[in-house]
Each structure stands twice: as structure tokens, then as C-alpha cells.
């Protein structure tokens, strides 16, 4: 039997999804191994292949790149920059994250590249792309040797206006190659070719610093694959939600950051499609946070201004809003006697009070246990026995008694507050963008999504909920569904009137050729090419994306007309004014061709009833196992639907129908 | 469900901040002026029907004062009964909780079932509001009339739509009417966005519950602030700080504060501050109050809600005729962001002997403003309003941060590439000013250096830098940081300029700004 295997590394668990040629699909969770994350991959792979079988595709999602930035464990890097701008990286945009908290620290990556490793060289390009002064090539060579003497493992090069004219950066790279053959180099004009020197330099520095780290990591995974007899090339998930070969990943490792949320969003898009929806909102509820993603036209919405921790990293990424609201969010009473939940979380260690691992503060999960929504004997497929007594004690002591409420009232209030926080996040992703969420189905993911999803939907007037077959491993599922994808972009920041059509056609052809070459390197040919532009009116700050028909002779005119129309759609008004081209982008894809997943149908829980409190109402609620729901059969809430990786609460007023790929909940008064 | 269900209160708290944040989002997306969309020099707020601040976005702290007092003062002139559904008022005069004439507010009463339940206020710093000097910062202004157009509360829109006459009246008094019209429309749109959210909340929870929740939120914040004050030891503490400017007697202009803590009550008496100045560093009493409220919140070391309730336990006294209550006709353009910083730092100095572990030594506490205006024949003037941060003071647990904004301001810089693309200016250098932070057990952060070359025949410059004479102070024996320095290189001759000035620049002039370093904390070892 040949398998497609997707393995996604999370903070606590490493998730694997394994689909056989006949569509039958297994899932596996093994504990993550943070010191060497590849170990868990080896363990999962060995277990999936224990009964023999070969691997047709191996797809991997990893937070190694993100963690290396957050934890400061990336390689030692040097920066060569335009003379006079050595400190642009340290100065940043000068704003601080908090207005009132005086204890804030540095807001820029000053420790990633300290002053002695930031060297300026003379030579300047002006805002129109013309050379103002020539590159001092001898100074570049001196800088390389200075940095080598300081022991750098990689060099980032970021010159002013390189996104318009990369000639100086390209020449500098030749000099680095001559003086230090084999040293990792990243150019700002390739990593993030867009205006604003601080943000572009940040992305470039992190890209360079990640190269040695990711090279070692990907080699480890390749060794594990070879050891298990897997001969297909390793493909990894990048931030846009596509896959790329290990070779391309080594060349631009910054692309691997922010990929986890993208994989989950891709998974959500796929389940929505299976359920017949081209649009929807997903909410992935983990221990410390909830990630909300918007799916439109069958794909996750993208953004181009991502952040890692406090640093801007402008790589295209799924537009996911993370809010500090999860099962571990701590409930507390503020100085004025108001009930608050979060943003602090008990995390995985010590975890909620009911974990019995020394945590004593009441959390959202403790409230779920008190309300009878979660079966304490079957949490995480029975891997952790929860302690209702500890959950009760914590809520009674810290919430119920101070507020003069009963235990169940306090637990209900905790749920209401956290549900409202999550609903607010969904509102920000929809209403605040002019999208009416009532037209959208909502999808719960993560271990906790199903506990809160109906309340969130009701708050927003959403009437349909799509529960994936395996909500707890949506990111790993997304790996199997993601296309192989390469993209290239080029910054302009110029009025279209200054850009002849021929020049734009040539630019698009160049970007397309770069994508095609990358595809070829991964042994594939694209079946989809998408050309788009980011544009604005002159003098406007916010850009809108415009799709350019492929093969058009007049891309400039297409951008102009497309933008004027996009502006009308986005803001309700438009005008026939000069348009600025900010960026051109080309994306090529090859879609995965495998069919739907079939999940195993074996139940482990006896059906029965349990006393539970839903919306403050004490009910005797039927408990159903997901696998035993007959496809097509429609039932009425209330119900609690249990499965290995999650629990879904169906309140009164909702009906539900099981389908092979998902469970559909609908308002049914 | 009881209206005071803690869950509903918490949800409405979230909803109010979300409404204010949505307003700011509308502004940054649709405003025309770079100052608003790049630097984000704007704030949004929701108040209750009486004008008590209820929800605020993550905005500029100093704007909070304007937001807290604007509507209560407005209602003294125009009672609530005179408001009609669909009305939106525009104003900038100091009397209405104003901070300075550049900060123009658009306020909309939010009606539900025929009565006002809340207000949405959009504040935006307009790059130019007319007056003597482009950019509307006239250093040696004698009175407010020289500074800019003065807009009393007038209807900018009604249910019938925009009041064209009012808008045209304003637009014919500013130097970039095209951008200004776009900004005004964006402000109107942002208040409508909040109106929609507030109506949704009233529909979902009931208007009575919504109103009760607002009251409750104020009470909760009042209790929080009382708790914070109780945390401070009872006693009387005094502190002072000085502007770079001189008062009428030729002495450094003094800001003095006397803080009296007793249980959960606090009195902040600023009467000892100097008399009204003959320049633009005066400020309105509302801003004095918001500076004190900001300082109190920092001193508390707590994460508190900033609303009308939090102000109740604070008694703030200013003296009529002083720099902090100079009268309606006084020039106030710079006082808003310069003199207000002196109040906060005077508070810090007052508390040095009591809670040094919560304090930060003096920093580059000024807007650090350079405003470059390029006249263009037959077209709107092009204006770069650029603020400059510097070193933060040291703290008991760490060194000060270099190159940051401190205290009441938190707007970002403009990237060199944006400046060169949009203005006739070349940025020749942007660097850390090494060694400018004061020595100490924890040293002050360093300031920055930015060098500008003028690439147009003529450029009208305004500079507004505090801490160019009186350096950022150290705490607990730490040394002061270096002062701001502004130098002009013209025809090969270098001249040091005043920190506050209006002047004409010429082609190829090179202007170098070096910003202040922070003061050190603790004796240097």
C-alpha cells in the first residue's frame, strides 16, 4: 500500500495524517520533542509504516523557523547596508507596543545583529532607481572579511531602494561569493522586494540567519526519511499555504515562518469545499490561543504584513487573527471586582487545575468540566485523566465565592466571557472588513473549538457550523490538501503612467520564469498561474490586490481598471485618478490530485446521557460518538458529540447531520 | 438576566474598545494625509450620552484628555435636546476639551429609539489648519488667532448629508484642501462605523442594559484607580521640571506639582507652575488633566481601563492665568505634546523617593517634531510632519531603550524610502547617537541622528524640540542624557539652531537632528 503522509509539529503534539491510495485515512498524535523536533517526526513515521507500505508523498509543516527567531537560536548573521543606514535595523519604526506599561524593552532585533555586525558601504540608488553614487566594491570586500573574522555564518545585504534597482545588491553578492565561497547570503531585493527599509531589512536578516539552521534541520528530516526507506522528495509547507521542495526551502527559509496557521487554514478551506462551501470562517482553539481564519473563493485570505513576535516579517501568509483565548485561559477577578478571562494562560504546564499537575488557577477547561461538557475520563482520547474535584475547587474559590454565585453560575459566566472574546475575533475578521458573517458557515478546530463554536455562531447570527472529520489535526490534514506552489514578486511604488506596458510585460515574464524554474527544480510543471498587483491611488497608503488576466498585452491598463473597480467594491466609492503600482506578484501552483479522505469508523464511547449545563440550563444531554452517527441522519440538539480528538456541543435549537467528510450543524428552532 | 450580569459588562467593555478600534481602522485606511495613514496620529473614542469616556482604541495617550472632556464641554454650549439623529459636529477650539488647533474632532451623537445613548468621537491631527505658518505651528505666536482657523462646534453633517457650506468654509482656510476633504470624510465615516456597532449592542442586549453597563464600567474603573492610589504611601510629594523656554521674568519656565495622597484620594496641584508664556508652549487645563491621568496610570504599575470613572478619584488643580490655564486666546500648538511631558516627568521626580522601582529616568520626552513644507505653485503644499524619538531613561531593572518614543507620544517615524519617494528631501543618514545616554547603574538609552538634504528651491521648516537645553534627568544618582541638537550646514558653514523655530530652508541645505539620550538610573559603578 502506498501512503501520503503529512506531519505537522505543534508545541505539545506532533500530528500526523496518513492517507492510503484508497482514501482511507489514519491520524496519529505523538508528543513533540522540542530539543530536536525531528525526533518526533521519526517516531510518527515509524509507527505509520510499522505494518509495511511505501510513501508516495511526504509533506511537512514545522515551527522550527519561527521558534528559532522567537528564541534567538538562529545562526550568527552579519548585515551589509547602505553607508549611513547601519542602524536602520536598530531604530526601526520607533513605536512601542504598550502605551502605559513603562517596562517595555527594545522593540527591534538589535540583539540579532548587534552594531559591530552591521557594516555600511558607500553607493546609493535614488527613489527613481537611478544610481546616485557607485557601489564601493572594495568596501564590500572589507566588510565581508570583517564579518568573517567575527565568525558569522550568514550575511544579509540590504541597500536603500534595492527593491527598485537590485544591481548594487547583486554585485555585492558576487563579491561575497568571491571572498567567502559557500557562505549563506540573502538579498533584500529577493527576500522582500518592497518599500520601507526597516521592514525589508528585518525579513532579510532573519532569512539569512535561518539558512544554516534550516539546512541542518531539513537534512535531519531527509536522513530520517532515507532511514525509513522513503525515496520521495521532502516537501514543506510555506507561509502562503503551499508546499515547496526542500531545496527551495533552504534557499528562502523565511518562507517557512508563519506556516502553521496557514496549514490549518488550508485544511479548513478543503473541508469547507467538501461540504459545498466556497467561503467560511474557521476558529482553531488550542490551549493558549484561538486562531481565526477567513476562507473566500475556496482559499484562505492572505496578508502581506505578517509579524513574528514583535518583529515585522513581510512574507505572504494566511490572514489569521490569533487572540489569547484558549482552554488554558485563566479566569480572574480584577481589582474592581469584574470577571475577566485571559489573556494569561495556564499553558500545558502546569495546565488547568483539572490536569492535576499543580495548576491551581481556574481556567476555561475547568469550567467545561464543571459544566459537564467534557468527559473527564476521555480527555485527549483518554491520555489524560482530568480531576473534576480540582476544577470545582479552583472555580469555587477564585470566582464563585468572590462574586457570590453558585459554582455552575460561575462556570457559565467564564464560558460566556471567553465565548464573547472568541466571537469578537470572528467579528474583527468579518464585520470589521465589511463582511456579513451570517452568510458564512463557521468551522471549529483544535481540541476546544467544538465546545465554544455554537455559542460563537449564535452571538454573530451565523446559522451553520461545519465540523471537520478530525478537528484536532486540521493542520496536518491541510498538508495533504495544499498545492505545490512557488511565487515571486517585485516592488515598484510608482505611478502607472511612468511604467510602459512593455516594461510591465517583461517584468511579469521575468517573475513567471522564476516561478517556472522553481517548479522545475521540484520536478513539476504548474497547472495554474496567477498574476496580480498591489496598487493604490497616488497619495493613498492602503493597497488593494488586483488580479491581472494572464497573457494580457496591456497589464498596466488591466491594473488601472481593476484597481478602480476594486476600490469601488472595497470602499463603496471610486474615482478615475492616477494609480500607483506598489508590487507585482506571480504565483504558480500544481494542485494535489488525490481524492477525499475516508476516516475510520470505530467508536470507543458507549452512547448514553450526561448531566450538563448549556447556556445556564441544566439538561440531561445525550452523548453520541461521532463514528456511530449514521450518514445523512438528522438529529436535534441538545447533544454532546465525542470523538478521539475533540468534543462538539450541540445546544438546544440546533440540528445536526453527519456526512462522510464533516458534520453539519444548523439552527433549527 | 440582570442588567449587571458581569458577563454582559465584560462583553460590552470589549464591544466598546472594538468599536473605537474599528473607527481607527477606517481612518488609517481611508484618510488622505500621510500623517494619519503612515504615522497614525489619530485617536477614536466612544463616550456615554453625557460624554464620559467609555471606550478608547489603542491610540495616542495624550489624546485621551481631549476625548474625556470634549463632549461634557460641548453639552454646556449645545444641550443634548438640540441634537438630531444624523448630526455630526466638527470643532477644534480649546474650550471644548481641546488640546491644540491641529487636532480636529468630529463627534456624532448615537441615537437609539430617538434618544442619544452614546457619542463617537474621531480625533485627527490635520497636517495644516491654516494660520500664519504652514503646518500651523507658529513658535512665537502671540495669540491663538495667529495659529490657525478656530472651529467652534458646528454641524458638519446632518441626516440630509454633508453641510457643504461648513466644509467649504474650512477647506478655504487650509493649505491642502484636497487631502483635508478626504480626511474629514474619513472622520465622518469612522463615527458612522462606531454608531453601527453601538446600535447592534443595544439591539442585542437591550438599550437599558447597555446604559447600565456603561455606568458599571465607570464604577469599576473608579474602584480600580482608588485601589491604585491606596497602593501609594500617604503623604505630600513635590516635583518640578522645566521647559527649554523662558518665562516672563527670564527664568526657565517651571512646571510644579504637589501631590497629596490620602487613602484612596489624590490631589494634584499644579498651581505653582509659571504664568502664561508668550509662545506656543501654553496648554489647556484639559491636557494638564490627561497628563496627570497618564502619569497616575504609569505610577500605578497596573493595567487599568482608561475611562471617565478612572478620572473621578483624581482632583487636579490648575491656576487661571498660568501656562496650564492660559485663557481661550492663548497659543497652545506645542504645549499639547511638550508641556504635558513636563507634567508627567515632574510627577516622576516627585515620587522618586517613594517608588523609584516603578519609575523611568528622563528621556527624549518631546514630539521631536520637524515639519518640512514645500510650496508648489498652483498645487497643494507638500508637507512632511516628522517626529523624532530618542533615548528612554534607565530603570531599576534595565538600561533605557535607544531610539524610541516615550511617555505620551507613540507615533512612528517615516521610512527614509517613503520620504525620498514622496518629498523633495534626501535622507543622508539615520543612525544611533552612540554615547548620548546618561551614565548610571543602568544607563540611559541613546538618541538618534537623522540628516536631511533639501532638494527643492525652498522649504518652510518648523522645529519643535524640547530637551534641547534642559537635559533628560537621571534618577537615584544616574547622570543626565545629552540634549537635542539641531544644526544647519549651509554653504559650508555649520550653525547650531534653536530647538523651537520657524525658518526658510534653501536648496542643498543640510539639516542634522541629534535627539536626546535618556538619563541614567542609579549611581554609575
From TrEMBL, chain A:
This is Hydantoinase/oxoprolinase family protein. Residues 200-487 form the Hydantoinase A/oxoprolinase domain. It comes from Rhodovarius crocodyli. One of its GO terms (cellular component) is cytosol. One of its GO terms (biological process) is glutathione metabolic process. GO terms for molecular function: 5-oxoprolinase (ATP-hydrolyzing) activity. Residues 607-657 form the Acetophenone carboxylase-like C-terminal domain. Residues 5-179 form the Hydantoinase/oxoprolinase N-terminal domain.
Automatic annotation (TrEMBL), chain B:
One of its GO terms (cellular component) is cytosol. It comes from the Bacteria. It holds the Pfam family Hydantoinase_B. GO terms for molecular function: 5-oxoprolinase (ATP-hydrolyzing) activity. Residues 5-524 form the Hydantoinase B/oxoprolinase domain. GO terms for biological process: glutathione metabolic process. This is Hydantoinase B/oxoprolinase family protein. It comes from Rhodovarius crocodyli.
Amino acid at each position: 500500500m502506498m501512503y501520503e503522509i503529512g506531519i505537522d509539529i505543534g508545541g505539545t503534539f506532533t500530528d500526523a495524517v496518513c492517507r492510503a491510495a484508497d482514501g482511507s485515512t489514519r491520524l496519529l498524535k505523538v508528543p513533540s520533542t522540542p530539543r530536536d523536533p525531528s525526533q518526533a517526526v521519526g517516531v510518527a513515521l515509524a509507527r505509520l509504516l510499522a505494518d509495511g507500505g511505501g510513501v508516495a508523498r511526504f509533506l511537512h509543516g514545522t515551527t522550527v523557523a519561527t521558534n528559532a527567531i522567537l528564541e534567538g537560536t538562529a545562526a550568527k548573521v552579519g548585515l551589509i547596508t547602505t553607508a549611513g543606514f547601519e542602524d536602520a535595523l536598530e531604530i526601526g519604526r520607533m513605536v512601542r507596543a504598550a502605551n502605559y506599561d513603562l517596562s517595555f524593552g527594545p522593540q527591534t532585533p538589535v540583539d540579532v545583529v548587534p552594531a559591530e555586525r552591521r557594516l555600511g558601504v558607500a553607493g546609493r540608488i535614488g527613489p527613481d532607481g537611478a544610481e546616485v553614487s557607485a557601489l564601493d566594491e572594495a568596501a564590500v570586500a572589507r566588510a565581508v572579511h570583517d564579518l568573517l573574522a567575527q565568525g558569522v555564518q550568514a550575511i544579509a545585504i540590504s541597500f536603500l531602494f534595492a527593491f527598485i534597482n537590485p544591481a548594487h545588491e547583486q554585485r555585492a553578492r558576487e563579491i561575497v561569493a568571491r571572498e567567502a565561497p559557500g557562505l549563506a547570503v540573502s538579498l533584500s531585493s529577493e527576500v522582500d522586494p518592497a518599500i520601507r527599509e526597516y521592514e525589508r531589512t528585518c525579513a532579510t536578516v532573519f532569512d539569512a540567519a535561518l539558512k544554516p539552521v534550516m539546512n541542518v534541520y531539513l537534512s535531519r528530516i531527509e536522513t530520517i526519511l532515507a532511514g525509513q526507506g522513503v525515496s520521495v522528495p521532502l516537501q514543506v509547507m510555506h507561509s502562503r499555504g503551499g508546499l515547496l521542495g526542500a531545496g527551495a526551502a533552504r534557499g528562502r527559509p523565511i518562507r517557512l515562518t508563519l506556516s502553521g496557521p496557514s496549514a490549518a487554514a488550508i485544511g479548513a478551506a478543503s473541508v469547507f469545499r467538501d461540504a459545498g462551501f466556497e467561503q467560511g470562517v474557521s476558529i482553531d482553539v488550542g490551549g493558549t490561543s484561538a486562531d481565526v481564519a477567513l476562507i473566500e473563493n475556496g482559499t484562505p485570505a492572505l496578508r502581506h504584513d505578517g509579524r513574528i513576535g514583535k518583529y515585522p516579517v513581510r512574507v505572504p501568509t494566511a490572514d489569521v487573527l490569533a487572540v489569547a483565548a484558549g482552554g488554558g485561559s485563566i479566569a480572574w477577578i480584577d481589582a474592581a471586582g469584574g470577571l475577566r478571562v485571559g489573556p494569561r494562560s495556564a499553558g500545558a504546564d502546569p495546565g488547568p487545575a483539572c490536569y492535576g499537575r499543580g495548576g491551581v488557577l481556574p481556567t476555561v477547561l475547568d469550567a467545561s468540566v464543571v459544566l459537564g461538557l467534557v468527559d473527564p475520563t476521555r480527555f485527549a482520547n483518554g491520555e489524560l485523566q482530568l480531576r473534576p474535584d480540582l476544577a470545582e475547587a479552583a472555580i469555587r474559590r477564585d470566582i464563585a465565592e468572590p462574586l457570590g454565585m453558585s459554582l455552575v453560575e460561575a462556570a457559565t459566566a467564564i464560558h460566556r466571557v471567553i465565548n464573547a472574546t472568541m466571537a469578537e475575533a470572528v467579528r474583527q475578521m468579518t464585520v470589521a472588513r465589511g463582511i456579513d458573517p451570517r452568510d458564512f458557515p463557521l468551522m471549529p478546530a483544535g481540541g476546544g473549538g467544538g465546545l465554544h463554536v455554537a455559542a460563537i455562531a449564535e452571538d454573530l447570527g451565523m446559522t451553520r457550523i461545519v465540523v471537520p472529520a478530525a478537528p484536532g489535526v486540521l493542520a496536518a490534514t491541510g498538508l495533504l490538501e495544499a498545492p505545490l506552489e512557488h511565487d515571486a514578486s517585485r516592488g515598484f511604488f510608482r505611478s502607472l503612467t511612468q511604467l510602459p506596458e512593455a516594461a510591465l510585460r517583461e517584468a511579469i515574464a521575468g517573475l513567471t520564469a522564476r516561478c517556472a524554474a522553481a517548479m522545475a527544480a521540484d520536478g513539476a510543471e504548474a497547472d495554474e498561474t496567477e498574476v496580480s498587483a498591489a496598487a493604490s491611488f497616488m497619495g493613498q497608503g492602503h493597497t488593494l490586490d488586483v488580479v491581472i488576466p494572464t497573457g494580457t498585452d496591456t497589464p498596466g491598463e488591466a491594473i488601472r481598471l481593476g484597481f478602480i473597480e476594486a476600490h469601488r467594491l472595497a470602499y463603496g466609492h471610486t474615482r478615475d485618478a492616477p494609480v500607483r503600482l506598489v508590487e507585482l506578484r506571480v504565483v504558480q501552483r500544481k494542485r494535489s490530485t488525490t481524492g477525499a479522505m475516508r476516516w475510520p469508523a470505530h467508536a470507543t464511547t458507549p452512547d448514553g446521557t450526561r448531566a450538563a449545563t448549556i447556556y445556564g440550563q441544566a439538561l440531561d444531554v445525550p452523548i453520541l460518538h461521532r463514528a456511530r452517527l449514521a450518514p445523512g441522519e438528522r438529529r436535534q440538539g441538545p447533544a454532546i458529540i465525542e470523538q478521539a480528538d475533540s468534543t462538539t456541543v450541540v445546544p438546544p435549537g440546533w440540528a445536526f447531520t453527519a456526512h462522510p467528510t464533516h458534520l453539519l450543524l444548523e439552527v433549527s428552532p | 438576566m440582570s442588567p449587571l450580569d458581569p458577563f454582559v459588562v465584560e462583553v460590552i467593555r470589549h464591544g466598546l474598545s472594538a468599536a473605537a478600534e474599528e473607527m481607527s481602522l477606517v481612518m488609517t485606511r481611508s484618510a488622505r494625509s500621510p500623517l494619519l495613514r503612515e504615522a497614525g496620529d489619530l485617536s477614536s473614542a466612544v463616550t456615554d450620552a453625557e460624554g464620559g469616556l467609555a471606550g478608547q482604541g489603542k491610540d495616542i495617550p495624550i489624546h485621551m484628555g481631549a476625548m474625556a472632556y470634549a463632549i461634557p464641554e460641548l453639552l454646556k454650549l449645545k444641550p443634548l435636546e438640540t441634537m438630531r439623529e444624523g448630526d455630526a459636529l466638527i470643532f477644534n477650539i480649546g474650550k471644548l476639551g481641546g488640546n491644540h488647533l491641529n487636532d480636529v474632532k468630529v463627534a456624532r451623537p448615537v441615537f437609539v429609539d430617538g434618544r442619544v445613548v452614546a457619542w463617537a468621537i474621531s480625533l485627527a491631527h490635520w497636517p495644516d489648519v491654516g494660520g500664519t505658518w504652514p503646518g500651523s505651528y507658529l513658535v512665537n505666536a502671540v495669540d491663538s488667532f495667529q495659529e490657525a482657523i478656530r472651529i467652534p462646534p458646528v454641524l458638519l453633517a446632518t441626516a440630509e448629508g454633508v453641510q457643504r457650506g461648513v466644509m467649504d468654509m474650512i477647506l478655504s482656510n487650509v493649505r491642502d484642501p484636497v487631502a483635508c476633504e478626504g480626511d474629514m470624510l474619513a472622520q465622518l465615516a469612522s463615527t458612522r462605523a462606531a454608531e453601527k456597532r453601538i446600535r447592534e449592542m443595544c439591539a442585542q442586549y437591550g438599550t437599558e442594559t447597555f446604559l447600565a453597563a456603561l455606568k458599571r464600567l465607570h464604577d469599576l474603573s473608579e474602584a480600580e484607580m482608588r485601589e491604585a492610589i491606596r497602593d501609594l504611601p500617604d503623604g505630600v510629594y513635590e516635583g518640578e521640571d522645566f521647559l527649554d523656554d523662558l518665562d516672563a521674568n527670564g527664568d526657565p519656565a517651571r512646571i510644579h506639582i504637589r501631590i497629596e495622597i490620602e487613602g484612596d484620594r489624590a490631589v494634584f496641584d499644579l498651581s505653582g507652575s509659571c504664568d502664561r508664556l508668550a509662545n506656543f508652549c501654553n496648554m489647556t487645563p484639559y491636557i494638564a488633566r490627561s497628563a496627570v491621568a497618564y502619569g497616575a496610570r504609569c505610577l500605578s504599575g497596573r493595567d487599568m481601563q482608561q475611562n471617565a470613572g478612572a478620572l473621578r478619584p483624581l482632583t487636579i488643580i490648575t491656576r487661571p492665568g498660568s501656562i496650564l490655564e492660559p485663557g481661550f486666546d492663548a497659543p497652545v500648538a506645542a504645549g499639547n505634546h511638550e508641556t504635558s511631558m513636563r507634567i508627567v516627568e515632574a510627577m516622576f521626580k516627585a515620587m522618586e523617593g517613594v517608588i523609584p522601582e516603578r519609575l523611568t529616568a528622563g528621556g527624549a520626552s518631546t514630539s521631536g517634531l520637524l515639519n518640512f513644507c514645500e510650496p508648489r505653485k498652483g498645487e497643494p503644499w507638500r508637507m512632511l510632519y516628522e517626529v523624532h524619538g530618542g533615548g528612554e531613561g534607565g530603570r531599576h531593572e534595565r538600561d533605557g531603550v535607544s531610539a524610541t518614543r516615550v511617555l505620551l507620544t507613540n507615533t512612528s517615524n517615516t521610512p527614509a524610502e517613503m520620504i525620498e519617494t514622496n518629498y523633495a528631501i534626501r535622507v543622508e543618514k539615520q543612525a544611533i547617537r552612540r554615547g548620548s545616554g546618561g551614565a548610571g547603574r543602568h544607563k540611559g538609552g541613546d538618541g538618534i541622528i537623522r540628516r536631511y538634504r533639501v532638494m527643492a528651491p525652498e522649504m518652510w521648516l518648523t522645529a519643535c524640540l524640547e530637551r534641547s537645553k534642559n537635559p533628560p534627568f537621571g534618577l537615584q544618582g544616574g547622570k543626565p542624557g545629552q540634549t537635542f541638537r539641531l544644526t544647519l550646514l549651509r554653504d559650508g558653514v555649520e550653525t547650531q539652531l534653536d530647538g523651537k523655530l520657524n525658518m526658510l530652508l534653501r536648496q542643498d541645505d543640510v539639516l542634522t537632528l541629534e535627539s536626546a539620550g535618556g538619563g541614567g538610573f542609579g549611581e554609575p559603578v
